[in-house]
Write a structure and sequence with these properties.
Elements: E1 18-19, E2 22-23, H1 29-35, H2 52-62, E3 68-72, H3 76-84, H4 92-103, E4 112-117, H5 119-122, H6 132-138, E5 142-146, E6 151-153, E7 161-163, H7 169-179, E8 183-190, H8 198-217, E9 221-228, H9 236-256, E10 265-266, H10 283-297, E11 304-307, H11 314-324, E12 332-337, H12 339-349, H13 356-374
Parallel strand pairs: 3-4, 3-12, 4-5, 5-8, 8-9, 9-10, 10-11, 11-12
Antiparallel strand pairs: 1-2, 6-7
């Protein structure tokens, strides 16, 4: 059941009362009367990035039919947790071996248009000495880079978080571009059980907008990702209600920061019930709510909607994506999955060289399934029971 009040803990400001987060002085009626007369003023000017044409081209390349994004931007610590699950030590050599397995899967570029990398990976080589960026380009895959510096507590909120990393972002982005990255990713989160407070939503939206503007200034297509966490017992109506508010704030601030909509990509959560909600819904219901959200909040100028899986099982994420592509959409509706592409692959590999081919086959199987889902042609036939296992982790971070 939808909550009577969307945001808790801190008040919501009406849009006319603030610009870029700063309150405006309220004008007295007499002052308003004086200003109601026409006055000469210079027209507003919107500065376009010198990379505008390239940004649009890159975004369209990533948002190409039948393809999506492989998110392999786990921090070294999170990558270590993945390796520990198969009995491997968290060393650079082991991380390199696993990342090599992923990027060298034969024909991966048929299904994957972009790969999000962690900073170590952007500058890393494969086990046979080739630059990972070069291997991706040879596969027809656009290299991307995670640029945020992670979540920290948000003072004054209801035990919520904000995402740091704006300091030094311009110079880092310029360096990443020189290294071969052509898009960026910044993830912040919104927690429904913790409110969300108006402060947390505003902070998330403003941070994403500043990041997006800085990225475009330095030639990187920004992936805008305000993840609404699956944590909670709430129903799908509550998720929908919160998502509408979050995306309204995000696009307000993107516009305030003169972000070129044709040169961005979005990475939203699907509209689902909370992970601990007893009322489960079919893929068709998820698709209906999610597409309604997009139609109400996302301008058609945006080239691609690259959904995160957010702890869904491999099969669940694919089924939901397929349901959203049963009719034409104004945008390329696709995927940017990490665990929902890698889980079976990682377990199949197990750290053993003799299993590399089988692990790559598992990755390609998942990539192909999601490629079919992007085209609305996935059937779900022949999926293993392991691929149907959920991967939700409460309070997930990486």
């Amino acid at each position: 059941m939808a909550s009577a009040s969307l945001l808790k803990s801190s008040p919501v400001l009406d849009k006319p009362d603030f610009v870029k987060g700063q309150p405006l002085l309220r004008l007295q009626p007499a002052v308003l009367a004086v200003r109601s007369h026409p006055v000469s003023s210079s027209p507003l000017s919107i500065r376009a990035s010198s990379y505008a044409d390239e940004l649009v081209k890159t975004a369209k390349t990533v948002a190409s039919p039948g393809r999506g994004i492989l998110a392999m931007d786990e921090s070294n610590a999170t990558c270590g947790k993945r390796l520990a699950s198969i009995g491997l030590e968290n060393t650079e050599a082991n991380r390199q071996a696993y990342r090599t397995l992923l990027v060298t899967a034969p024909g991966l570029g048929q299904y994957i248009s972009g790969a999000i990398l962690f900073e170590e990976t952007l500058y890393q080589s494969t086990v046979d000495g080739r630059k990972i960026v070069d291997v991706l380009v040879e596969q027809g895959i656009v290299p991307g880079i995670k640029v945020d510096k992670g979540l920290v507590p948000l003072a004054g909120s209801n035990n919520e978080s904000w995402c740091q990393g704006l300091d030094g972002l311009a110079s880092r982005s310029a360096s990443y571009y020189q290294q071969g990255a052509r898009f960026a990713k910044w993830r912040t989160i919104v927690s429904i059980p913790n409110g969300p407070s108006a402060l947390a939503v505003k902070e998330a939206a403003w941070g994403l907008a500043r990041y997006a503007a800085i990225s475009q200034d330095n030639g990187l297509v920004p992936i805008v990702e305000p993840e609404i966490l699956l944590d909670g017992e709430h129903g799908i109506e509550r998720t929908f209600e919160v998502a509408q508010k979050v995306w309204a704030e995000v696009f307000f601030y993107l516009a305030e920061n003169n972000v070129l909509f044709e040169g961005i990509l979005l990475k939203p959560s699907m509209v689902t019930p909370g992970a601990e909600c007893k009322d489960k819904v079919a893929p068709e219901v998820v698709a209906s709510y999610t597409l309604n959200l997009l139609k109400r909040r996302i301008p058609p100028a945006v080239p691609g909607i690259m959904f995160l899986s957010g702890g869904q099982s491999e099969v669940e994420a694919t089924l939901n994506l397929n349901a959203m592509n049963q009719a034409p959409n104004p945008w390329h509706v696709s995927f940017s999955y990490a665990r929902a592409l890698q889980n079976t692959c990682l377990k199949t590999w197990g750290g053993r060289p003799e299993n590399v081919k089988a692990a790559q086959d598992a990755l390609l199987l998942r990539a192909k399934a999601n490629s079919l889902a992007q085209l609305g042609k996935y059937t779900g036939e022949g999926e293993s029971e392991e691929a149907k296992e959920g991967m939700f982790v409460k309070g997930y971070s990486y």
